[in-house]
Design goal:
about 475 residues, mainly alpha, 17 helices, elongated
Length: about 475
């Protein structure tokens, strides 16, 4: 029962008793004191300062205008009222009236405790809107930079509800600001994020920068792991006394190395992993000292170069891809040098085979059907190339030596002549039939099937109406 009296119901009961007590005291003495001291100037036709105290005939009337009675209390306490020319108010009467007005104001304040009054529907101030957008997006955006400045509305505060109204022009600026904010949205498969940039190129650059930052924690700018530092750390960790030695993960953090990579490397080197190391390398590692880290890293680098292709991080493709050290076919293209450049010496081409990083012991290389492909000809086995090259050089020398006589004979020859005519003409001119036919075909004279492909250049057709 005692606890129930402390609830909301007891508070309402207490407030009702307070108002009833105020009503009794108002009707008993306070009202008569107000009439005697104030009605001469503030009642009936005389209402100085637009204050009419004659209208308050009960506490209910007084409760409607609490602000007026705040002014009455101020004037009574300062001694401004009643004025000096009016009938003075006895000190005990002034004290009694002040006590009643103060009791009324305290009761009214208690009744409205926690009530902020009417809440005005308003927009956010420019600063509130800017900070809200920045908190939501995580970006230093300034969406209100084109908005008009907020007014203080007389109270001196820029967030007064009466001043924060929305005009049609400002509404348009809000729409423009929203479009600008939306331009920073990047749609993702599972949601969205906000970006500093507004173009696809900006978003791609941000993604690449994020990848680089991730790799930069434990690798260089190209994403290559520090092999030498990792090997040295493992060797130094191994050389420490087992008693009091930190865990490998803690040691990696101390050296600012990737703990996961270091643990995996340690497992592979100790034989716990799948391995795949060159022959004898794990045995060398078992007895290695920390001073040998650079030499070990150089061996690993050479081995990696043979088995892996390392690209640049951030090109939207794997930065490491396996290389195939076994080549089944190799196409070589080069222009044969002129004899003047080589002095008539043979041109030597060598095929060199290297080991894949694991040593050459036990390796076997098999050259199967090595051949030379020349445009317009059947592939030649390498054993036939030397004879073919000598034959080709002799043939070019023969054509060049008989060029002048063959051209003269070809010009004098008739396009209708047959093979027999070519033989007679060749004997007359002292040249070979083959040379004459080649030059005639090259000049487009007659129907000889011989061509000079790959020797002197493109064939000439229809020269001089022929």
């Amino acid at each position: 029962m005692g606890g129930a009296l402390l609830g909301p119901g007891s508070a309402c009961l207490r407030a009702a008793e307070d108002w009833a007590s105020l009503e009794r005291s108002f009707q008993g003495s306070a009202r008569h004191l107000v009439e005697a001291a104030c009605h001469e100037c503030h009642a009936g036709e005389k209402t100085k300062g637009d204050v009419d105290l004659g209208q308050y005939r009960s506490v209910t009337d007084v409760r409607r205008d609490a602000k007026v009675w705040e002014g009455v209390l101020e004037q009574l306490e300062s001694g401004e009222m009643p004025p000096k020319k009016a009938k003075p108010l006895a000190a005990e009467d002034r004290a009694a009236l002040v006590a009643w007005v103060r009791g009324f104001l305290d009761t009214a304040a208690n009744e409205r405790a926690g009530d902020p009054g009417p809440v005005v529907l308003r927009r956010l101030s420019n600063a509130e809107y800017t900070y809200s957008v920045q908190d939501l997006t995580g970006l230093a955006l300034q969406p209100a930079r084109e908005f008009p400045a907020d007014g203080a509305a007389g109270e001196g505060f820029m967030n007064a509800g009466q001043a924060l109204v929305m005009s049609s022009a400002l509404f348009g600026k809000y729409l423009d600001a929203a479009k600008g904010i939306a331009a920073h949205v990047v749609l993702l498969p599972d949601g969205f994020r906000f970006s500093e940039g507004t173009t696809r190129r900006d978003w791609s650059d941000e993604a690449v920068a994020a990848i680089r930052r991730f790799y930069a924690q434990y690798a260089d700018g190209e994403g290559r792991l520090p092999v030498e530092a990792s090997l040295r750390a493992l060797l130094e960790w191994r050389e420490r006394p087992s008693e009091g030695r930190p865990t490998l993960a803690a040691f990696a953090a101390e050296r600012k190395l990737n703990a996961r990579y270091l643990l995996g490397l340690q497992g592979a080197l100790s034989g716990e992993g799948k391995g795949g190391w060159p022959a004898g390398w794990t045995e060398r590692w078992a007895t290695a000292k920390s001073t040998e880290a650079a030499s070990l890293a150089a061996d690993v680098a050479a081995w990696q170069k043979a088995l892996w292709k390392v690209g640049t991080v951030g090109h939207m493709k794997p930065w490491m891809s396996p290389a195939q050290p076994v080549v089944y076919e190799r196409e070589l293209k080069w222009s044969a040098p002129k004899e003047s450049a080589t002095g008539g010496a043979d041109v030597v081409v060598r095929w060199v085979v290297t080991e894949a990083g694991d040593g050459a012991a036990g390796d076997l290389v098999l050259w199967e059907q090595p051949r030379l492909k020349v445009p317009g000809r059947e592939p030649l086995d390498l054993k036939e190339v030397r004879a073919w090259w000598a034959e080709s050089r002799a043939w070019r020398t023969h054509l060049a030596s008989q060029a002048a006589a063959s051209l003269e004979a070809a010009v004098s020859a008739s396009a209708a002549q047959g093979p027999g005519g070519d033989g007679e003409l060749a004997r007359t001119r002292g040249i070979s039939v083959e040379s004459l036919r080649v030059w005639k075909a090259f000049l487009g004279i007659g129907d000889a099937p011989v061509a000079l492909e790959g020797h002197l250049g493109p064939e000439i057709r229809g020269v001089g109406g022929q």
